[in-house]
Structure formats: structure tokens, C-alpha cells
């Protein structure tokens, strides 16, 4: 492995369906069949009612920026090559929050409340990462 290869997620039995969907360019989150609650990140039970009866629900891929930071220092060679880059907490329209990078030529114009949409980054070794790009005015 080259020192510049990006660190990649290691899917578990619980998260594998999430990564499989991402590889097919679909964004999914867990939804509880018992109470309807959606959650991210994937877990073995519902965080609202403790049911283990969970399914995967497709998301629109649209959301807004809850908060973000612009990184000017990176802990790893791969990320140094991308400086400056944006890391954000995204509130999906489906009501869950996830961390991702904001990518694209205008990423440094990210603002709290900005509308974003998912894009899929082929990260190597068959791993696809859901990322986000700015989608216009809030
Ligand atoms: Zn539930």
C-alpha cells in the first residue's frame, strides 16, 4: 500500500448494505419497521425503540449543511494533496445527520444552511464514498 492511498472504511456485517448501496450510487439509511424512525450511522438496533427489525431506506441525497470546517492541515498524505478541503456535517432531508466532505470547484464557498446533494467518489479497492456538493441557494 502506498503511503498516499486513502484510508478506507472497513465494512462490518451491519454496515455492508450501506457500502453496497454506495457502490451502486444509492444513498441509504436504516429505518425501523417497528416505529418508522430513521438513523445513521448503521446500528444493530433502533436508537428510538430498541427494535432489531431494521430495513434500508433510500434517501433523496439532498440535505443542508449543519456545520463545517475548512481543513488547512492534514494528518495523512492523501488528504495533504487535497488541501484545503471541506469536512461537513450534513442534515439529510430524511432527518439524519452524516459527516462527509463537500467536494467540487466551489466547495470552499460552503456555508451553514447551504443546500447540498450527494455525489459518489470512487475511493479505490472497490469502495465508494458518499460525498456532497453544493446544490444552490439555501
Ligand atoms: Zn424503532
Question: What do you see in this structure?
Answer:
The chain is mainly beta and 138 residues long. The chain has one domain: OB fold (Dihydrolipoamide Acetyltransferase, E2P), CATH 2.40.50.840. It is built from 2 helices and 8 strands, in the order H-E-E-E-E-H-E-E-E-E. It has helices at 16-23, 77-80, and strands at residues 28-32, 38-39, 54-58, 62-71, 85-92, 97-102, 115-124, 127-134. The chain has a 5-stranded antiparallel β-sheet with strand order 6-5-4-7-8, covered by helices on one side. A hairpin with a 4-residue loop joins strand 5 (85-92) and strand 6 (97-102). The longest helix is centred in the N-terminal third of the chain and has 8 residues, at 16-23. The chain is globular and about 45 Å long. The protein starts with 15 loop residues before the first helix and ends with a strand. The mean pLDDT is 94. Bound molecules: zinc ion. Residues 32, 34-35, 37, 46, 48-49, 51 line the site of zinc ion.
